Each structure stands twice: as C-alpha cells, then as structure tokens.
Amino acid sequence: MDEIAISLTDVSKCFKRYRHPVDRLKEILFPGKARADEFWALQNINLEIPKGKTLGIVGRNGSGKSTLLQIIVGTLAPTSGDVHVRGRISALLELGSGFNPEFTGRQNVFFNGQLLGLTQAEIEERFDDIVGFADIGDFLDQPVKTYSSGMFVRLAFAVATSVDPDILVVDEALSVGDEAFQRKCFARLETIQERGGTILFVSHAAGTVIELCDSAILMYDGELLLTHTPKTVIDKYHKLIYAPAEKTEEIRREIRAFDRGKTRDRLIPKIPDFATEINGHLGNGSHGEVANSAIFQQGARAFYDPEMKPAETIAYESRGAKIIDPKIITLRDQQVNNLVGRHEYVYTYTVEFSQTAYRVRFGMLVKTISGMEIGGASYAFSDYADTNIVEAGTKLVVKFRFKCLLNPGVYFLNAGVSGVVDGSFTYLDRCIDVAMFRVLPEENLMGTGTVDFVVKPSLTVEKTAIGVEKQGELIETENY
C-alpha cells in the first residue's frame, strides 16, 4: 500500500459572519447567545493523498479550494475533523502570503526561506540558484511592494521550490507570468514529481490539470463532490458549471451517485498502459479483441469498426439545440473511425434547433485518451448565411474537413454548438467524448509523440582521409 502523505478525516470549517463589528465583542462578553451567521466553507471532507502523487483541485470560485489548502498547509485550523501531513510542506497560496512588502526581494528570500524551515546557512547555499531561477535582475534589491504580479510570483516560486519540499501546494500561482517562465516552473514541478514529491495543484486550466496530475477532485459549495481521474473530473466540472441554474442540484446528485458507484479509492491513478486504456474504453470481450487486432495490424486503408464507441459520453443540458449523429466520413461520404495518417477526412454532425437562436457557433475538439486537448476549430453560422438568427425548426449539417496529422493512437471527439441565451453567450448543446477514432500504425513510420509533423529527415556524411577533407555527401530519406 502506498504511504499516505496527506490524510483528512471528516474535516469541516465554519466561518462566522457578523452584521456589526460590535456583535463580535457582545458574543465574547455574553456567551451563550449567537450573534453571527455561520458559513460552512468545508463540510465533512475525507481525502487521502499517497506520497509521490499529484492531485489536481478544481471548482469555481468560492467552492472551498483555498480554504482546503490553507487547512492542509496549517495556516487555518479546521472547526472539526483530523488532518495529518507527513513531510516538509511548501506552499504558494494567495499572492503576497509569506512575504513582507516592505522588505526587498533579497531580504524576503531569507525571511521566507526561514519560514519554510531552512537555516541561514542553507539559504545562503541556495541563494544563487533562487536568484537565477527568479531572474528579476536589479529588482532583487527593491521592496517587493514595487513588484509586478509576475515578478512577485517568480521570486515566490523560486523560494518555495528551493527547499526541496516533500509536499508542494500551488494555488493558481502559475497563471501569472510569461510563457517562458511558466514552462520553467512546470519543468521544476516535473523534477519534484520525478524525485517522489507530492503536489497539490489548483487551476482553472483544464488542460494543465489533465496533463500534470495523476488524479483530481471536484469541490463545490464546500463539498468534495468527486474524486477520480483528471479527465473525468474536468468533464463533470464543465457539465456542472455550464448547466442552467435550475438543473445544478440535479447534476450534483448525478455526480455524487457517480462517485459512490465508481470510486473505491480516494485517489485514482492514471492508467499507464496504452492497450489497457483502449480496451477499457471499448469494453470487454469482443470489443477488446477488436481493439488488439486493429492496433497491431499493418494496413493503410481507413475503415469503420461498429464496436468502437466511447464507454461514456457526457452531454450538457440542451438549451434549444440538439446535436445528433456525430461521425467521421471520408471525402466520398464513407463512415470511418480507423483513419490513415496524413489523409483528409470530415467530422460531421447534425444540429436540430427547437428554439430560435442568435449568434450561433459550431465547434469540434480532438483529445487524447488522457483528455489532453490536441486541437479543434469553430465557426459562426453567420459566416455562411446573411443573418445571425437560426429559426426554430431548422436542421443544420455541420462539417469540419481536416487533415489527420496525428501519430498512431486512439483519440476522442467533442461537439458543441453555442449562442446567445437570455443576453449571454453560452452552450446550446455540447457533447464530450461523443465519438472516438484510431489512427492506424504504418510500417517505417518515424513520427513520435502525438502530432505528426511530416518530418523530412536527411543525413549528411562527411568522409575524410588522414590530413585530407573531402566534400560531404548528402543522403536523403523521405517517409511518405
């Protein structure tokens, strides 16, 4: 059994809200009479995080994410319940925590480092690495109150990760800063993962949570609503936040039932084996046999496998439009779901409108098995019509012609139609994992990773004799 790094048992947190400041004093002087409204930010949270795992935490603002992290870190005490944390913990919470705005960056490195448990000698030993990672130049000797948010995060992240934490907590901090620095931060997180560190990562960036985390939890109104794989949690979260207000509670009940029915452990790891993941999506028995035989066949003709269907499709609540019959077809209208790389296909679906819609757009998205977004497209109805209005009773056939520049593997498709409802732009209908397809393997294919860049390799051989150089001889190899 994995060693548990963080354990929470029946953890709840209540905040008191007073209408008038004097009511707090009255409550102290005259105990027994409540003068405050109670707000339960967390309710009966049970969670175990094994050592060496990365947990994503998602939820809309006010759902209890930050309160949960502060209790884990120890800056807040729970109202009830037990919290056990094993190992040195380092945290990047709200901007400004742990830093004195009047101190310079240099002074704050030593100040914050000591708060994180380093000695003066240890900070001095790591100082050059911290400053080099932050890369804020002469601002190091300026008060941090003069820093931009990006500069502040650079220094805070550099200090927090320099202590070699057993547990690192990151609360939306990496959404600040330029792309180059963000990549440097993610590389540092990957280093912590490789040496067996535990990471708690809060972000609204769905793709980052899916790519970085082993598992995820969904917080909603102080409740831990779901613990599952990152992809499943993100899909359920999106369905919940895009639902009409009157459907929210119904969807919450569905998610609770899903969690009770399918989650046995409080942390669900990623499925590492490629063939296992495919068979898991297709099902057991003949479905798995079809998957295995198709994976290893060496053919280059597209075909349709009727057994190849997603195990679960998540459909948003319809708001006057309905997506039906999503599929991939060849340029000759033949339905396929086993594709040949670098060939062109059409992803198509039909949309039926039961209500008049405005400023309508249609979209597609391709994702990996783990849920990482590869790419997609969207276009507006008005691009192909003289009006922004789609009348009720209209049926539209949507088509996306694309070139399959993907390496062999299994991929999933989303479909979506959006428009203006009650003055706001939102989804009229959306289906997640509505279809799946496989890109077939080929002999002598040199591509690696996910995207096929259609690389043209070449090799230059320099032949030389002793003391004599001869002109290089070019040997080119193409793979098409």
UniProtKB/TrEMBL annotation:
Residues 23-246 form the ABC transporter domain. This is ABC transporter ATP-binding protein. GO terms for molecular function: ABC-type transporter activity; ATP binding; ATP hydrolysis activity. The keyword Hydrolase does not apply. Belongs to the ABC transporter superfamily. Keywords: ATP-binding, Nucleotide-binding, Transport. The lineage of its organism: Bacteria, Bacillati, Cyanobacteriota, Cyanophyceae, Oscillatoriophycideae. CDD domains: ABC_KpsT_Wzt, Wzt_C-like. One of its GO terms (cellular component) is membrane. It comes from the Bacteria. Signal peptide: none annotated.
